[in-house]
Design a protein that fits this description.
Elements lengths: L2 H11 L8 E5 L4 H13 L2 E8 L5 H17 L3 E5 L2 H8 L3 H18 L4 E4 L4 E4 L4 E3 L4 H14 L3 H4 L5 E2 L2 E2 L7 H11 L15 H16 L3 H30 L1 E3 L2 E5 H5 L4 H9 L9 H7 L7 E3 L3 E6 L2 E6 L7 E4 L5 E4 L2 E9 L11 E5 L7 E5 L5 E2 L8 E2 H7 L4 H5 L2 E5 L2 E5 L3 E2 L11 E9 L8
Parallel strand pairs: 1-2, 1-6, 2-3, 6-8
Antiparallel strand pairs: 4-5, 7-8, 9-10, 10-13, 11-12, 12-13, 14-18, 15-16, 16-24, 17-24, 18-21, 19-20, 21-22, 22-23
Helix pairs in contact: 2-8, 4-5, 6-9, 6-10, 12-13
Length: about 475
């Protein structure tokens, strides 16, 4: 079967895009992207061509740019050009040249999909106007996929990394993944297509080149069918990953409790999860944690309250029987569950104590840091959290509800006091504005038999109740 027919069938089979869609082709000028352009032209697709000049190869970079410009003119399609100071970006972002180039090009490509209106793109000497496109097409082929899977295996990315490059991920499409590099080279020769050669592909300065030029040839000396076997495994791993993700989602539904910007995970339930390390990694990786931090997170499960580990964006905080994933700016959890068996809660600003007493032990107190409520009206667990806009309660002595924001104004609270106000709630009903007022619905009455006494002891440097 001719390459063009395979190309069309693959697009239809994987449902990559529709014939009416407008496409942006990422074109370097090498064999792969030249074939992609020719196939899209022969298939009658509507496309524009985009070229990145990373300014890393001197005269060769300029040569490639001019080649792609002329190729766009040949096909009579818009030509989009972007020059990057890749070296400077890599240094500033502390990334490898490979990572920097990938980040820069994909951010630029996606800008054409995101914009609803025509986008102006500056080249060296011209301004090209490009309308919005529906999909971004890259010329990744089967051999690229083999290299990616092998690199991911040694890098330790787990089952998801072994599925390789996906044919479609959002608006990013790779319609040549069905073809081997040798097929593309044969097509170029048959069609007598011109292309440029990147001589750095023969050097091992980059990881992918090292795998392409050294590792894979060495492996195939012992296992001649190695690359074909990897391709077969990629198909299996894609299906395996589908099943794997379904199982992970079920575990997440059982374990994760969303509390505002935080995620709460019960430690005892997590410890019973099998396989623990795998499930825990799948949970924490979404918050910037690496596979190497999974062991640290497991140790955290049996550590003391207040211990934490962090990623670039989040902390995992151990808080009694809970592991809490919170944004990096948090030094402690902003939502803490109070179980019926709890007697003492250690917070940054002090200690919250809980005590059950009988009506005969009850005595009134004017201490604002102590609250006494009718235990018959209490249903655990309770939630200790910072107040938020929209909160309301029935202040003791009042029969009408009042917005907490107005209550704090009436109490003449400073901005700092407002920022550090905590509440204890039950079923979305506020029981106590800590250090200020209980809710009238939970007050002790003449018929009360048992009482829950809540006391907050401030640290010496704490100036406001929290």
């Amino acid at each position: 079967m001719e390459l063009l027919e395979k190309f069309k069938q693959y697009i239809q089979k994987e449902n990559l895009f529709q014939p009416k869609d407008r496409l942006l082709l990422a074109v370097s000028g090498g064999v792969d992207s030249v074939v992609l352009c020719e196939l899209c032209k022969q298939a009658g697709f509507d496309f524009v061509m985009a070229h990145c000049n990373f300014q890393l190869r001197g005269a060769d970079s300029i040569r490639d740019e001019e080649f792609v410009r002329e190729l766009a003119a040949k096909y009579e399609v818009p030509f989009l050009l972007k020059n990057f100071d890749t070296m400077e970006y890599a240094t500033t972002a502390k990334k490898s040249i490979e990572e920097a180039a990938r980040d820069l090009r994909y951010e630029w490509f996606h800008s054409f999909v995101a914009n609803k209106k025509s986008t102006a793109v500056a080249g060296e000497s011209a301004l090209v106007v490009s309308p919005q496109v529906d999909y971004i097409l890259t010329a990744h082929h089967a051999d690229d996929n083999i290299e990616t899977v092998l690199m991911n295996f040694f890098r330790g990315t787990g089952i998801t990394g072994l599925r390789g490059i996906l044919p479609k991920h959002g608006c990013l499409v790779r319609p040549l993944l069905f073809a081997r590099r040798s097929e593309l080279e044969a097509y170029v020769n048959d069609q007598e297509l011109s292309f440029v050669t990147d001589h750095t592909n023969l050097e091992n300065d980059y990881t992918r080149n090292y795998f392409r030029n050294t590792i894979i040839p060495l492996v195939t000396e012992t296992y001649p069918n190695a690359t074909s076997n990897v391709l077969k495994n990629i198909r299996r791993f894609r299906e395996t990953d589908d099943l794997y993700q379904q199982a992970v989602l079920l575990h997440k539904k059982k374990l994760l409790e969303q509390k505002g910007a935080e995620v709460h995970i019960p430690v005892l339930k997590l410890l019973k999860t099998v396989p623990l390390a795998t499930v825990l990694y799948e949970v924490i990786k979404d918050y910037g944690f690496t596979a190497h931090q999974t062991d640290e997170a497991i140790l955290l499960l049996k550590s003391e309250t207040g211990k934490y580990i962090q990623s670039a964006s989040h902390r995992i905080i151990k808080n009694r029987n809970w592991m809490i994933i919170a944004p990096i700016h948090a030094t402690e959890a902003n939502n803490i569950l109070i179980e019926e068996k709890d007697r003492e809660m250690l917070l940054k600003q002090g200690i919250l104590s809980l005590e059950k007493i009988t009506a005969t032990q009850f005595s009134k107190t004017d201490n604002p840091l102590t609250a006494q409520v009718d235990l018959a009206n209490i249903k655990f667990p309770l939630l200790l959290r910072r107040w938020k806009q929209g909160d309301y309660f029935y202040p003791l002595g009042m029969q009408k509800k009042k917005k907490l924001s107005r209550f704090l104004i009436d109490q003449k609270c400073s901005l700092t006091q407002k920022e550090n106000t905590w509440v204890i709630e039950m079923d979305k009903k506020i029981i106590w504005v800590v250090g200020m007022r209980i809710d009238d619905r939970f007050k002790v009455t003449a018929t009360t038999k048992n009482i829950l006494k809540l006391s907050f002891t401030q640290n010496e440097d704490a100036k406001v109740p929290q």
